[in-house]
Amino acid sequence: AQSVSQHNHHVILSEAASLELGCNYSYGGTVNLFWYVQYPGQHLQLLLKYFSGDPLVKGIKGFEAEFIKSKFSFNLRKPSVQWSDTAEYFCAVKGGSYIPTFGRGTSLIVHP
Amino acid sequence: EAGVAQSPRYKIIEKRQSVAFWCNPISGHATLYWYQQILGQGPKLLIQFQNNGVVDDSQLPKDRFSAERLKGVDSTLKIQPAKLEDSAVYLCASQAANTGELFFGEGSRLTVL
């Protein structure tokens, strides 16, 4: 079985602060990893994904994530957040033939 | 490219009534998922289709939920009879075969009174 754990459920930051959202997964084999974002009133959309290769993945809007296999982690980072980054962020993992499994999400509020 | 279409966007029903949600995936996407997202939680898989066949419905409460994708394109999810705890957003997603990326619809928000 596979599972995903997101440690921060609610994060509040001021604009220009740095962001790091934690994501850990459990699965023993090769995985595909994703971060999705849901802006208020909008549908889930892909921020970035890791399938193979360079473990540092860059996504849209200045986000990046680093896959650390030894720690089963795929943390999301952004050096300087903006008010428009206020949203719900979901980490997801897909191992082998399993279906994509989502974490419970992190609610980010950025104060202007 | 058109996205995943879902309807209705909102539905309010009383418990024990029935409801149906419709999804039209991105053209050419063979894999389709229905997820349930309860407020404050991440999406939870209900059922996965590959073309018109069910791949995984192990988490679908089959005593009240049913889903079909008869022609391998559009899909419907039905709840009958609804319970209060079914209040949630029902998300449809289709998957690009080459990248594995899921594309989500805007969801159907169900409120059961």
Task: Characterize the structure shown.
The complex is a heterodimer of chains A (112) and B (113). Chain A is mainly β. Helix content of chain A is 0%, strand content 53%. By secondary structure, chain B is an all-beta fold. Chain B has no helices and eleven strands. Chain B has strands spanning 5-7, 10-13, 19-24, 31-37, 44-50, 53-56, 65-68, 75-79, 88-95, 102-104, 108-112. In chain B, strands 2, 4, 5, 6, 9, 10 and 11 form a seven-stranded mixed sheet that branches. Chain B is globular, with a radius of gyration of 13 Å. Chain A binds chain B through residues 4, 6, 32, 34, 36, 42-46, 49, 51, 90, 92, 94, 99-105, and chain B through 3-4, 33, 35, 40-45, 48, 55-56, 91, 93, 99-102, 104-107.
List the defining traits of the structure above.
heterodimer, A: 112 residues, mainly beta, six-stranded mixed sheet, four-stranded antiparallel sheet, globular, B: 113 residues, seven-stranded mixed sheet
Short description:
Chain A is an all-beta fold and 112 residues long. Chain A is built from no helices and twelve strands. In chain A, a hairpin with a 6-residue loop joins strand 5 and strand 6.
